[in-house]
Design goal:
single chain; 518 residues; mainly alpha; elongated
């Protein structure tokens, strides 16, 4: 057990090396990892030297995030470190003081350093290293692991963060319960179970009170919620502050659909598109997956009534959803509701699709956009965007994408059209060859019949052969007529599609002129 625990500690410390790499720098993951390491130092599972190494590493080249993480780490394990290594803690606080006097960091981080000094004055009274409920191991049984950040063989073992199906789930759970009983003891386990009972009773009482509440059918609560949401959005300087206010005030708990709908409405009311709304929606989707489902549903609902929107609202709305798509805040399967055909689209929906794909190509680039649209797992959801069910629809989609400057996305559809035309041409050639062979056989048979008039047996045979070949000639002529009819229908469809496209373009131009005049 000691060996496996030591390997887990080395992998945990290795995950903290993401601070050194700016590409892998993730503040939320770093804060969670450092908090875990701080509690391991408090329980004397890890040595205090590792904590001083981490603090020195984060304050060597101070940034806003690294200083903030260092402050939180010192608050969590400062009491234990000051007891074990007071000289090292004094040196770390001198470094904090130097950063504070330099004044190069943000004001918010300066406040966090001042808060740290205030906590130190109270000798970390509100943040004890080990609370009595968790002081379960005696000092003689404590095993401290000495791990050094300078070791080159630190492996984060990121593959362990991937879910793997356990066929023996019940067996492993029983083994874990045995280990838990061995570590905590039966008394502590029973005490923890009794602590959860009053909480469950309180939850039941709260649920009963909620059931007894009077339903407000006048939607006054909904109006007040929308009013507070609007004020929070308009009074926020940036999207981070707005997301923090929404989460702190708990406005969106149970009302995620109203928050997401309010965001889209505020975005559409602006004169020009503001990235503030896209970034705010992205942050909310990262915090809670419920927002992803609501924005997914709102995309489909808004696209169905897109013909009711004005041009300016259309532009803001399409750029908003494009931001959510290229940041993977919502699933790309939402494009299944789009079908680019002459019958299924209107002028408003074409403007929406045009701005949507232009924004995607601008932020992602054509190569990445084409790679995403050509993923085999998502092809069934893009069948409406790139239709191949009928040549007329395929040709319409090709003309649409080339007109908006994204003709590179239509290579597969062009190949599909070429394959259809080549198949029709080969079938026509095969029929023509069969007709020519049958005519040559008929001429040779007629010559032989005139030279052999004297022989009666030969003439009878030739008559039988001619009678047997007449139905074959009828079959070939019928098949030839069918193919010629198919070719004529395809040509007529192409001509109709061209005429309809010209009429549609002229109508769109007239509508754009009318809108500009208005």
């Amino acid at each position: 057990k000691q060996k496996t625990a030591y390997e887990m500690l080395r992998s945990l410390v290795g995950s903290e090396m993401c601070i050194r790499d700016s590409k892998r720098n993730n503040k939320i993951v770093c804060m969670a990892t450092t908090k875990m390491l701080a509690h391991l130092i408090n329980q004397k599972v890890l040595s205090d030297f590792l904590g001083l190494q981490l603090l020195a590493l984060m304050l060597e080249n101070p940034t806003e995030d690294s200083v903030e993480i260092a402050c939180d780490f010192m608050i969590e394990c400062g009491q234990v470190l000051s007891e074990l290594t007071p000289a090292g803690v004094n040196a770390i606080f001198e470094r904090f003081k130097g950063i504070l006097h330099e004044g190069e960091i943000d004001r918010r981080v300066q406040y966090s350093i001042e808060n740290l000094f205030a906590v130190r004055k109270t000798k970390f009274a509100e943040h004890p290293g080990v609370i009595p409920e968790l002081d379960l191991v005696e000092e003689d049984d404590v095993i401290t692991h000495n791990v050094n950040l300078d070791d080159e063989d630190l492996d984060p073992e990121d593959n362990l963060n991937v879910f793997k199906f356990d066929p023996f789930y019940e067996k492993t759970e029983e083994e874990w319960n045995e280990i838990k009983l061995e570590i905590l003891g039966e008394e502590n386990v029973i005490r923890l179970k009794t602590l959860h009972k009053p909480e469950e009773e309180m939850e039941e009482e709260e649920n009963e009170e909620e059931e007894e509440r009077i339903l407000d059918l006048t939607e006054e609560d909904r109006k007040n919620l929308r009013r507070t949401l609007y004020l929070v959005i308009m009074n926020s300087l940036d999207f981070e502050e707005c997301a923090h206010k929404i989460m702190k005030m708990r406005i969106g708990e149970g009302h995620e659909d109203e928050v997401s709908h309010m965001l889209i409405e505020c975005c559409m009311e602006e004169r020009t598109y503001l990235r503030f709304y896209g970034l705010l929606a992205q942050r909310l989707c990262m915090i809670n997956e419920v927002y992803q489902q609501h924005f997914f549903r709102l995309f489909i609902d808004e696209f169905t009534i897109i013909h009711r929107q004005e041009t300016n609202r259309l532009r803001n709305q399409s750029k908003f959803f494009a931001h959510l798509l290229f940041t993977d805040s919502i699933d790309w399967k939402v494009l299944q509701c789009i079908r680019i055909t002459q019958d299924k689209t209107t002028s408003s929906s074409r403007i929406f699709i045009k701005i949507l794909f232009q924004e995607l190509s601008e932020h992602m680039g054509l190569e990445k956009l084409w790679a995403r649209l050509s993923e085999p797992d998502l092809q069934e959801y893009f069948s409406g965007v790139f239709p191949k069910d009928h040549p007329r629809n395929t040709r319409f989609a090709i003309n649409f994408f080339t007109s908006i400057g994204l003709g590179a996305l239509t290579e597969d559809m062009r190949k599909h059209l070429d394959e259809i035309s080549s198949k029709l041409m080969t079938e026509k050639k095969v029929l023509e060859e069969e007709d020519s062979d049958s005519s040559s056989d008929d001429s040779s048979e007629n010559g032989e019949g005139s030279s052999s008039d004297s022989v009666s047996s030969k003439s009878s045979r030739e008559e039988k052969q001619v009678k047997s070949k007449k139905p074959k000639e009828k079959q070939t002529s019928d098949s030839e007529e069918k193919i010629t009819k198919q070719l004529k229908e395809v040509r007529l469809q192409y001509d109709d599609a061209d005429k309809n496209q010209k009429k549609g373009r002229s109508r769109e131009r007239e509508r754009d002129r009318d809108r500009e005049r208005e």
